[in-house]
Amino acid sequence: MKNREFIIAVGFVLLVAAGSVVIQVKRLVEDRTLTVVYSPDRTLSEIAESNGVMPSELKYYLQYELRKGTAVNLFQKVGQSAVPETAVRRAIVRAWDDDPLRFVIRFVLWAAFLAWVVLWMMHQRKVATIRKWVIIGVWFLFGAWLGVSPNPLESFVSMFQWLTDRQGGPVLIIGTLALMAMLSVWGAKLFCGWACPLGALQEMLFYFRLFPAKYLFKFPFWLSLAVRIILLAAFVTILFGGWTVLGQTNLYQPVNYFKLFRLPQLTPLILYSLPVLAVLSVLLYRPFCQIVCPFGLLAWLLEKVSFYRIHINAKRCTKCLKCIKACPTQAMHRIYERKTLLPPDCWSCGDCIESCPARAVSYKMTLL
Ligand code: SF4
Ligand code: SF4
User: What is the pTM of this model?
Assistant: First the structure.
């Protein structure tokens, strides 16, 4: 049995790795600096806009490319400045933040990590205690270090944007979302629960809070589902209707907290609303995920066909209800009562596994 699980896990990692290479194969072999739109008669600001980059971002990345002391004037014609063409081209590629090699590395690491998580959770009781420290590593590796792109929110939104404007390669856009969906199907909301850096950031605030658990609040599932669906419907309506909100056609843009992993793109609205997200994250489990994120909604749907899920052994269960108390959401309540209609999101966090004194709760493959 152990061998079979291991072989399936290796197959899963290879599948994701192959998928990520196929999606990026063309871009992996091309010199991306040659695709930059450049003209010495334009200002840096105009070059940035022609390449879909914010001028402030171009200036930020030019600091990496230039020696200290070289002045960067965004409004001077670049041919008349001391900024070399190669530096501009390289800075634009950096600002695109879609390095194909980093894309492949990220997905291979994600798949290998989630494959390990599942095998480990199946044989480990102290899941919750150890996981609190693992999520710090997730936040660092997949957010602070590997950066913002690709991320689940933008991958989800990009697909709808592509349907309206047909801008960008469909293979990359649809393939990225499909790979993230694969990572989610591996275990119940496993990608969200274990691999998303924004989810990890919220959990760090939740688990390492300074005040007692009695102030915590379990957000009603029906309400979180309703809000996520309404937001998604509003997003689709505004996008396809060609309207704008706060100057944006993308309703999720003003609350795209993934930008925290890409400081040059941080908007004042995200910065100023950060304390609200931080306070909510301390009081309830993953507020952004439960109330806003459209990828979380997709992952909730995929949960119904996930390979690995939480399971209760009825013969061992002593009905102490400690698992329900330990669960940060209403998920365990429904799993315990075996109510399958609209079950709340389970994040595969493992709090219930560790809380069960009778060892009745486990993480199991549902297909074998
Ligand atoms: S719901 Fe969205 S933000 Fe939360 S963990 Fe999932 S993808 Fe990340
Ligand atoms: S049922 Fe609750 S405690 Fe158990 S893994 Fe799912 S979300 Fe975590």
Answer: 0.90
